[in-house]
């Protein structure tokens, strides 16, 4: 079974540019999460999708960040315009729809974003 | 920190020894999950313990949870050089929110 995949693995952009990160969850997982770890800080929650709906976006830092999950399959996270402080590793995770298994989140390898 | 603390921040042991990492938290939890991250790689899910459980085992891993002290520990027995990694505890909230709250992690080095 394929795990959570993320693309690209690395992205280097200049301040003011736009970057779009993609996450493909484990097939059949309705829950999809975005997290990020900026330099020297803890991994922080950004938002949670249940299928195509945003369940919780309380962790989104500002309106430069836009997440979508059209069709309830893969998700994209766009940063526009990127700022220096956006540099870090962006992780995606997914979990099953219901029951006790929905708590167990499986993470992708992350996208390392560097804003110059 | 609102998210609690993990200790130690770094741990260096010899192969074959046991490694114990601790995690504390401040708010109520539904579950607590431990993850491993090898250098430059993704997070690997190790084990989940629910708030009504006290101990759980998986291979060489043993996790305990003390909700009265709001703390958990991860024990790795008979450590191997391949266990060298960062270990994170992540707290799952109660209620409908499913987000995980991560600690700062423990960097474990197992010397051959």
Report on the architecture of this protein.
The complex is a heterodimer of chains A (116) and B (112). With 116 residues, chain A is mainly beta. Chain A has no helices and 11 strands. In chain A, strand 7 and strand 8 form a beta hairpin. The mean pLDDT of chain A is 92. By secondary structure, chain B is mostly beta strands. In chain B, 0% of the residues lie in helices and 57% in strands. Chain B has no helices and 11 strands. In chain B, strands 2, 4, 5, 9, 10 and 11 form a 6-stranded mixed sheet that branches. In chain B, strands 1-3-8-7-6 form a 5-stranded antiparallel sheet, with no helix packed on it. In chain B, strand 9 and strand 10 form a beta hairpin. The termini of chain B are far apart. Classes of the chains: A mainly beta (116), B mainly beta (112).
List keywords for this structure.
heterodimer; A: 116 residues; mainly beta; 7-stranded mixed β-sheet; 4-stranded antiparallel β-sheet; 0% helix; globular; B: 112 residues; 6-stranded mixed β-sheet
**Radius of gyration of chain B, in angstroms, nearest whole number:** 13 Å
H/E series of chain B, N to C?
EEEEEEEEEEE
The arrangement of helices and strands of chain A along the chain is EEEEEEEEEEE
How confident is the prediction overall: mean pLDDT of chain A?
Answer: 92
Class inferred from helices and paired strands of chain B: mainly beta
Number of helices of chain B: 0
Number of beta strands of chain B: 11
Beta-strand share of residues of chain A: over 45%
Shape of chain B: globular
- Overall average pLDDT of chain B: 90
Instruction: Give the strand tally of chain A.
Output: 11
Indicate the radius of gyration of chain A in whole angstroms.
13 Å
Shape of chain A: globular
Helix content of chain B: under 10%
Helix content of chain A: under 10%
What about the largest sheet of chain B?
Answer: 6 strands, mixed
Low-confidence stretches of chain B: none
Oligomer: heterodimer
Structural class of chain A, by secondary structure, is mainly beta
- Taking the alpha carbons of the first and last residues of chain B, their distance comes to 35 Å
């Amino acid at each position: 079974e394929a795990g959570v995949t993320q693309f690209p693995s690395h992205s280097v952009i200049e301040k003011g540019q736009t970057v779009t990160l993609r996450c493909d969850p484990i097939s059949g997982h309705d829950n999809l999460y975005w997290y990020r770890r900026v330099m020297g800080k803890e991994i922080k929650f950004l938002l949670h999708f249940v299928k195509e709906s945003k369940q919780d976006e309380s962790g989104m830092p500002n309106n430069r960040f836009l997440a979508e999950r059209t069709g309830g399959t893969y998700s994209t996270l766009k940063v526009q315009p990127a700022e220096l402080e956006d540099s870090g590793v962006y992780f995606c995770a997914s979990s099953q729809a219901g029951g006790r298994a929905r708590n167990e989140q499986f993470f992708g390898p992350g996208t390392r974003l560097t804003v110059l | 920190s609102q998210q609690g603390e993990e200790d130690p921040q770094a741990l260096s042991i010899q192969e074959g020894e046991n490694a114990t990492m601790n995690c504390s938290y401040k708010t109520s939890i539904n579950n607590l999950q431990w993850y491993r991250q090898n250098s430059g790689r993704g997070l690997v899910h190790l084990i989940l313990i629910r708030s009504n459980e006290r101990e759980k085992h998986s291979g060489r891993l043993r996790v305990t949870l003390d909700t009265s002290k709001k703390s958990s520990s991860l024990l790795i027995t008979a450590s191997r050089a391949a266990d060298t990694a960062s270990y994170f505890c992540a707290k799952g909230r109660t209620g409908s929110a499913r987000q995980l709250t991560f600690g700062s992690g423990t960097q474990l080095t197992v010397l051959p």
